[in-house]
Amino acid sequence: MLRYLPFLLIIALTIYAFIDCLNTPEEEVKHLPKVVWVMIILLFSVVGPIVWLAAGRKRVAAGGGRPRRTRWVAPDDNPEFLRSLGEEQERRNGGRDRDENKNDKDKDADPGKE
What we know:
This protein is mainly α.
């Protein structure tokens, strides 16, 4: 069984490189046209996939190059989260809280009004 392992690894590497090449957009393929890369991968079973993975396409940095926060922020300290909670509460109550708060402020301003 162990003697089949190198052949299985070569087949797995070839299949992975082939699928990766087919799924890569044309504008991300480097040095040669995509069709030529597919031929190289399929014709040169060990060298082709390795060359494709090393030099065939533009690689992006881990994380996708997206901007990251400098540190983790707890939900109760995150202004976006707190704002979304307030908006959600307003939607659920249909604006009732605003009317009640307005009435409470009017009562506080004129205590004889009760």
